[in-house]
């Protein structure tokens, strides 16, 4: 079994939900996969870590950070601006060696304190947005997205958005099919784009039902080359009204959503079928293999053939 090393690093103050999410995502044994993570849960604290309601958490004590490819920071005390010197040195060395770091919720504050967010977009829970922007005014900040991840560094909004970030990391590490399987076990959608909003806009049941029907129809008819106009018609809305409701609900345009579904379908077929590129292009909603190659490489920075070689399921 091929493995990737992951480390979940706990600070001196614990958020039980976030650590549980990190463990469920990266530390749960998954023998059904031919490749997966080997994960350690560690802390520099040589004592039980305190949580809410007089709870305590005990994990492996370390003096230095273990060698790993992925470092996960589930949480960090927002009020703490004095970072443990050994921890700071270890995390910076980890990044300098090419290691990746992702944080959930308040963990963004640790990344900022270490200077890792310089020149990058940051996000965190909306409750901490004002504090973050006041403390780090030089860091570009977005408070209406779920997560940001550039393949090296990632941070997420509140609590559950960390799961979305984790699923995205798994997808990039092991492919669409594996990420989808993990999401199903968590009873989650296969993938939520990081650009979606933290805030759920109110909508009438009829509007949600119409949007849902249109989206379901589009996904099941990609081979028929559906357009946004077709989706609006299925939702029984004008194009302008459809765009307005769609953006309010998903914080992205219908066209971008449709392009994402085409790419995801192509990824799934590349991983799980032996279809040639022409057939995959057809089933994914592209007019030709050339169009598929162009859009695929533009979105994922590798070609469909390279993707298949990396993620093809046995």
Automatic annotation (TrEMBL):
Keywords: Transcription, Transcription regulation. InterPro entries: Class_I_gatase-like (IPR029062), DJ-1/PfpI (IPR002818), Homeodomain-like_sf (IPR009057), HTH_AraC (IPR018060), INH-QAR (IPR052158). SUPFAM superfamilies: Class I glutamine amidotransferase-like, Homeodomain-like. SMART domains: HTH_ARAC. The keyword Transcription applies. Residues 212-310 form the HTH araC/xylS-type domain. This is Helix-turn-helix domain-containing protein. It comes from Fluctibacter corallii.
């Amino acid at each position: 079994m091929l493995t990737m090393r992951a480390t979940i690093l706990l600070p001196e103050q614990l958020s039980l939900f976030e650590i549980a999410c990190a463990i469920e995502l990266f530390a749960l044994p998954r023998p059904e996969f031919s490749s997966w993570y080997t994960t350690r849960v560690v802390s520099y604290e040589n004592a039980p870590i305190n949580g809410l309601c007089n709870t305590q958490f005990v994990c492996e004590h370390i003096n230095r950070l273990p060698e790993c490819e992925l470092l996960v920071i589930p949480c960090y005390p927002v009020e703490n601006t004095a970072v443990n010197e050994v921890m700071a040195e270890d995390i910076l060395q980890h990044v300098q060696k090419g290691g990746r770091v992702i944080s959930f919720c308040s963990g963004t504050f640790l990344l900022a304190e270490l200077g890792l967010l310089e020149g990058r977009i940051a996000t965190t829970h909306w409750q901490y947005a004002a504090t973050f922007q006041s403390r780090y005014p030089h860091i570009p900040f977005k408070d209406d997205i779920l997560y940001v991840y550039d393949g090296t560094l990632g941070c997420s909004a509140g609590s559950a958005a960390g799961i979305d970030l984790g699923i995205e990391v798994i997808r990039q590490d092991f492919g669409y099919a594996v990420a989808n399987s993990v999401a199903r076990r968590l009873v989650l959608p296969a993938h939520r784009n990081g650009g979606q909003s933290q805030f759920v806009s109110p909508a009438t049941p009829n509007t949600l039902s119409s949007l849902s029907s249109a989206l379901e129809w589009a996904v099941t008819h990609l081979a028929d080359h559906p357009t946004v106009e077709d989706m609006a018609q299925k939702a029984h809305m004008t194009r302008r009204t459809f765009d307005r409701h769609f953006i309010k609900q998903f914080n992205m345009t219908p066209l971008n959503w449709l392009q994402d579904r085409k790419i995801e379908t192509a990824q799934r077929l590349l991983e799980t079928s032996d279809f040639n590129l022409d057939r995959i292009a057809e089933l994914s909603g592209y007019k030709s293999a050339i169009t598929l190659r162009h859009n695929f490489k533009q979105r994922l920075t590798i070609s469909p053939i390279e993707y298949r070689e990396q993620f093809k399921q046995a």
